[in-house]
Amino acid sequence: MLPDTLRAPAWRPPEPMGHPADIVPIAGATSARPTPTNGGEPVALRVRAVLTLAEMLAAEIPTPAARVAGLLPGEGFGILAGPRKHGKTLLELELGLCVAGGVPFLGRAVTQTPVLIIEEEGAARAMQDRLRGQADALGIPADAPLHIAHRQRFRLDIPADVAAIDELIVTTGAGLVIIGPLAQVASIDENSNSADGMGPIVRTMTDLAARHRALVNLVHHLRKPAGAAQAPKSVDEFFYRVRGADALVAGVDVALGLWREPDATDGTLYVLARDGENVRIPLLFDARSLTFAVNPDPDDPMAADVARFVGILEARPGRWYARAEVEGATGWGRTKVLSVGMYAFGQGRAQQRTMARNAREWRVEDAFLGIVE
């Protein structure tokens, strides 16, 4: 039986561990381990609340309403990534306006909440013009609870600045916080996949989300491709291109990726969810209102190849296929089989995603393919 001083019958979000000198011990808590010292002086230890299995199962843990139905959770750490000039800032502002104004985002219902946008890039007049055009198009009133901190030089790697962001979130009551771009809010190697590189930023963002029960989104650029850039064929391929992808994407609850050529009207939103399926959402961009909408009739240049690929698998359900078998059945070469397979398994329609759940390891093993239910 745990002592009363260690019991936590009411759920509470985690708090980040501070410096040992700032930690206050819980009254009455004891530890069998020796007390560490700092220059001969004892250092106090924080004893965290611990739940038994029964208490954990009985705890009333609130389930936050989705911030955007089927797309964004009510709280957690997320990223919005994309190449430069593809419209990340416009999409970020549209998301903020929709959530603050309580209007659907990309046709999906939102849970209205105050929004805080910390934008460390771009000119103030350009942001004003974008917000005016989007607000008019979306029907968002000027008194919507959207709060903007523009180029205030906030840094996620400076504790005093993080404390200031904490205060802003409390003051505004923001349930959605958008910060970025990463290159302007932290002095780190953006290409780093190590815990020493991207890890501290991930921890700072997750701590902010936990402390305020909010969804905190970080805006980030894709790495520059070596050759001519083409739209990624799958969600996994998109986020592989994100700088520091392994360390950054592994820590998020949801990741949004935007791909739209600078002068194009069509684009794609890639969605990577920790607790859901990866999806691609075809988009249309309106250059007059500077807003995005779901494309009801996307042009899919790989639709015919995917249909043929899936048809081969469906012809003999319930077994594995080797790559060579698919090559023989289609007459395609190795590269095309892998390309169409990645597209179909990574981001096909519902039945293709079902196959992907059963055969996800095909991309790391040369012998591949799927089980059809």
Detailed description of the structure:
The structure is a single chain. The longest helix has 15 residues, at 124-138. Residues 1-38 and 347-373 have low confidence and may be disordered. The chain contains twelve helices and eleven strands. A nine-stranded mixed β-sheet has the order 5-4-6-7-3-8-9-10-11, with helices on both faces. The protein has a two-stranded antiparallel ribbon with strand order 1-2. It has three domains: 1-62, no CATH class; 76-294, P-loop containing nucleotide triphosphate hydrolases (Rossmann fold, 3-Layer(aba) Sandwich); 303-363. It has 373 residues and is α/β, with parallel strands linked by helices. 33% of the residues lie in helices and 16% in strands. A hairpin with a 2-residue loop joins strand 1 (37-38) and strand 2.
List keywords for this structure.
373 residues, alpha/beta, Rossmann fold, 3 domains, 9-stranded mixed β-sheet, two-stranded antiparallel ribbon, 12 helices, disordered N terminus, disordered C terminus
Gyration radius (Cα, Å) is 24 Å
CATH class of the largest domain: Alpha Beta
Beta content: 15-25%
Describe the main β-sheet briefly: 9 strands, mixed
Write down how many β-strands occur, each being a DSSP E stretch of 2 or more residues.
11
Give the neighbour order of strands across the main sheet: 5-4-6-7-3-8-9-10-11
CATH topology of the largest domain: Rossmann fold
Uncertain runs: 1-38, 347-373
Helix/strand order, N-terminal first: EEHEHEHEHEHHEHHEEEEHHHH
